[in-house]
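Hi Q.,

Before the meeting this afternoon, I wanted you to have the flavin-adenine dinucleotide prediction in hand. No need to reply - just skim if you have a minute. The sequence and ligand are here:
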Amino acid sequence: MTERQSIWVFIEQVDGRVADVSLELIGRARELADPLGYEVVGLLCGHEVEEAARDVIRHGADRVLLADDAELASYRTLPYARVAITEARRRQPEIFLVGGTPNGRDFAPRVASALRCGLTADCTDLQIGDYESRREGKTFRNLLFQIRPAFGGNLVATIVNPNSRPQMATVREGVMRMPASDASRTGVVEAVVPEFELGDFALEILSRQVRHSTVKLKDAPVIVAGGAGISDAEEFALLRDLANLLGGEVGASRAAVDAGWIGREHQVGQTGTTVRPRLYIAAGISGAIQHRAGMDQSSKIIAINTDPTAPMLQIAHYRIVGDVGEVLPMIIKALRERSMDHREETE
Ligand SMILES: Cc1cc2nc3c(=O)[nH]c(=O)nc-3n(C[C@H](O)[C@H](O)[C@H](O)COP(=O)(O)OP(=O)(O)OC[C@H]3O[C@@H](n4cnc5c(N)ncnc54)[C@H](O)[C@@H]3O)c2cc1C
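Predicted structure with the ligand bound:
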């Protein structure tokens, strides 16, 4: 039983491999917990996943609550939620963070609803701060500031939950930084015994098919992304040429995805992937806040746009005011010539 106040993270795993987003949240929880003296706790459900628990400790957790049971081998809403609800009622965490993945989005509302504590989805930042409630005439100390775009991204809302616990939030993969793994870190792996109820097994998994996407947006060092400023699928193919030349991946705005030029797995932004490449080339993308939320942490941004007032040009490190149909072929030609010169020099 833990005595200290704690920040919990729901640890997602598939076949014993911990999801990146869970480790990212452990890293952020560590940063939030240290000034407050709180404990960072991972809640891990699975079967024979002890090594995953150790991985969570290596990434910054003090303790892992490990529910190991054959019934928990694969994610199912009710058994997983049962473990979380039982343990949260018993141990009263201050904060409970969940990855904004398909399973996390399924799990978090059920747990929040059972605990009657509220939930903020898709936070883009988490901070600790004091909140002065004029209505209640008092100041609440050390609340979780749950920060996320609201009203279609036209404002950034800071949401607090002064009156119920835990303060629950989901955060999408890639928003928080991945902490380094430290093999010398030690922590406690504490077994918890699930207290299932009969109704928890309403759903039975008959078979499982794992589909691996070949799109590696999140880890790409270079992303060449296109938006509605690209005029057709043929012009979109130029992005692939440029990405290949730079050893990168193709990204897209939602407008380009909606136009059917490229699959949804390439979408960058609030409802797509969050990326931090070394170089992000935004071709014909206006820079709506929902797109910027997914790429504005890129080390270097090059924007190509015909409109000199486009928001993307305002955040870019290098701005090219021009037509993508003209600029992209020029860049591709220059890169090809350079690589030919280089080859001739080395022959
Ligand atoms: C809840 C919500 C979630 C959303 N999530 C996302 C998300 O995850 N990702 C995302 O991208 N969007 C998202 N959106 C949509 C977002 O608001 C924008 O509509 C979208 O990003 C616009 O895409 P775009 O910049 O390609 O298109 P536009 O805004 O139409 O911009 C096209 C740009 O191309 C320029 N242009 C036109 N012709 C040329 C040319 N020949 N050469 C160069 N430039 C040219 C124009 O000047 C313009 O700046 C979301 C919206 C909502 C409400």
